[in-house]
Amino acid sequence: MSHLDPHDVRERLDSLYRAESRIIFATLIRLLGDFDRAEEALHDAFRAALLQWPSDGIPANPRAWLVSAGRFKAIDALRRDARFDSLDAHPDALIAADAPDGEHYAIADDRLRLIFTCCHPALNAEARTALTLREVCGLSTEEIAHAFLIAPATLAQRIVRAKHKIRHAGIAYQVPERAQLPERLDSVLQVIYLIFNEGYAASSGGSLTRHDLSAEAIRLARLLVQLLPEPEALGLLALMLLHDSRRAARVSPAGDLVLLEAQDRAQWDRELIAEGIALLERGLAPRRIGPYLIQAAIAAVHAEAACHADTDWAQIVALYGALLRLDRSPVIALNRAVAVAMRDGAKAGLALVDELLAQGELADYRFAHAARADLCRRLGRTADARSAYERALALSQQEPERRLGQRLAELKEP
Asked: Tens digits of per-residue pLDDT, 329-343?
């Protein structure tokens, strides 16, 4: 066999690493039973390929070769490590149990196992998010820390603690049974949507994160839909695509957030809208309607309107009502109140907003005060509008909300 150029082999391995490393990693976790051991085995396998493939040739099934190489490298390491002498099971047991067989080992199940393990509800939300981005998406600790504006050492500690919890709490590396799926899937979807919202908020500030988290969330949701096309997974992917379709129109050249009513709809991505609506229709077909599907339906109503004035506010109010029956969140109630204001007038909407603020749960929620300010402005109640804008500004922490200051400056005392 003729020797291959090591440079060509390295390029092929770089390409394989980008495309296949997370798949290989998920399978190695199943075979080795440990995140860190699987990570080490993954890198050992690629190093072995870099040394062997120039002389041996690239195997017909590179992924299977890398899985097997990583697995046997891990077994060799176990044999060399005296700490494992007390194990009841000899490392050779790893060879006999669940060995990969060409294309037949369960790649889809391995990836699902990894997603559900990283998003296990026994882990706190911060740990779930960090672990998912690191182990499922393959982002580096530094990239994740940069995106969430925290120190890399803090992020690394968070990941270590999460892995320790998985190991010592006996969290099973498996896809949940059908009876457990709704609760467990909800945890996965929460993590994906949190990642998306972090990236979406960052991109609206005029300073993109180093790694676009919203794009990672969409990629992760696409994978989940491919592996487990449950209605709510379809709904979440549809929702994110419909939101993402408006990205180009959400920010002015100066970096200010542009409200939906003022956005140039010619800049909306019609391909993403069409894909989102198709996913929504697919998710609605089984008639098992959950909150992500309803939110996607609301986003679709906005997307289908040719202009803001053509928006079907009656349908949006009805959809928010359905969402409230599933989740009595005051934020959802606030969104419904704003929709009522668009359907029935500012006075009707303001009454609902004031009622929500009086209940106290939204007292420190800047968007509630911003909504009240806009409604008061529309009613000509300038002093009330000024007071509400000032409260919203005091609560605001993000640069795009400086538009509230501009609106405040525009108001003149009567």
From this structure: 999 999 999 999 999
